[in-house]
Design a protein that fits this description.
Layout: H1 2-7, H2 14-18, H3 24-37, H4 47-55, H5 59-71, E1 76-82, E2 85-91, H6 94-135, E3 146-149, E4 155-158, H7 159-168, H8 172-185, H9 191-194, H10 197-210
Helix pairs in contact: 3-5, 4-5
C-alpha cells in the first residue's frame, strides 16, 4: 500500500472548500471519495486505512472525519461482504453531485455575463475615445502637474484629478489600468498625446458610475 500511496493523487476543486465549507483533512477526504464517484457510477472501496495513509492521519481520526462527512450528507456509507468480512464503501450521493452541476452552471453563467459586460465596456471606451479625439487637441504637456499612469503609461491625470478620484474609491488604479490596457490593445496610443486630463478623468468617473461606485 505504501508504494500505491506514493503514486496516488487526488484533485481538490475550489468549490469543495468555497461552497461546502470543507478544509484540511476533511477536504482531502471528501476529494478522494468524490474523485471515485464523480461520474455517478463509481464508488470508493479503499477504506479508512488507505485514506489515513493518504492524508497522513491516524485511522481513528479518519473514522471521525468519515462520520462527520456522513452526518453532513456529503458522503454515503454502505457495506459489502468481501473475503468473508464486511467492508465499507463510500460514495458521494446524487444530491451532492447534482448540486455540483448547479455550481458549475452558475459559475459558467456568471463568466458569460461578465464577458458580455466587459465587451460592452470596451465598446463604450472605444466610442468615447473616438468621439473625444475629434474635438480635443489639447496637449497634456501643457500642465506640468500631469502624471502618466498605467502599465503602459497611456493614461494621464493631474494631481487634482488623482485626489478627486481617490476620494471616490481606493480602487482608482484598477480603473486607470482598464483604460490603459484598452488603449494599448487597440492601438489608440495617440490618444495619450491628444487627450487632456479632464477627458481621462471624466471618462474614468463615467466607468465608476457604470459600476455603481458613484451615483449617476
Amino acid at each position: 500500500m505504501e508504494e500505491e500511496i506514493k503514486k496516488s493523487y487526488t484533485v481538490v476543486h475550489s468549490w469543495m472548500a468555497r461552497d461546502l465549507g470543507l478544509k484540511g483533512n476533511e477536504l482531502l477526504t471528501f476529494a478522494i471519495i468524490y474523485n471515485f464517484s464523480m461520474d455517478g457510477a463509481g464508488k470508493f472501496f479503499g477504506g479508512k486505512k488507505y485514506i489515513s495513509k493518504f492524508i497522513n492521519s491516524s485511522e481513528r481520526c479518519t473514522e471521525y472525519i468519515l462520520k462527520g462527512l456522513t452526518e453532513k450528507k456529503l458522503i454515503k456509507k454502505s457495506q459489502i461482504m468481501y473475503h468473508g468480512r464486511l467492508s465499507n464503501i463510500f460514495v458521494v450521493p446524487d444530491e451532492v453531485l447534482r448540486q455540483r452541476k448547479k455550481f458549475v452552471g452558475d459559475l459558467r453563467k456568471k463568466c458569460v455575463e461578465q464577458a458580455k459586460k466587459n465587451q460592452k465596456k470596451d465598446e463604450n471606451i472605444a466610442h468615447y475615445i473616438k468621439e473625444n479625439n475629434k474635438i480635443n487637441n489639447q496637449s497634456i504637456y501643457q500642465n506640468a502637474e500631469t502624471i502618466r499612469l498605467g502599465e503602459y503609461e497611456n493614461v494621464v491625470l493631474s494631481q487634482e484629478w488623482m485626489e478627486r478620484l481617490s476620494l471616490v474609491t481606493p480602487d482608482i488604479m484598477d480603473y486607470v489600468q482598464i483604460v490603459d490596457n484598452f488603449i494599448e490593445e487597440n492601438d489608440f496610443r495617440t490618444i495619450s498625446s491628444q487627450w487632456g486630463t479632464d477627458e481621462f478623468g471624466n471618462y474614468i468617473l463615467s466607468l465608476m458610475k457604470e459600476d455603481g461606485v458613484v451615483p449617476d
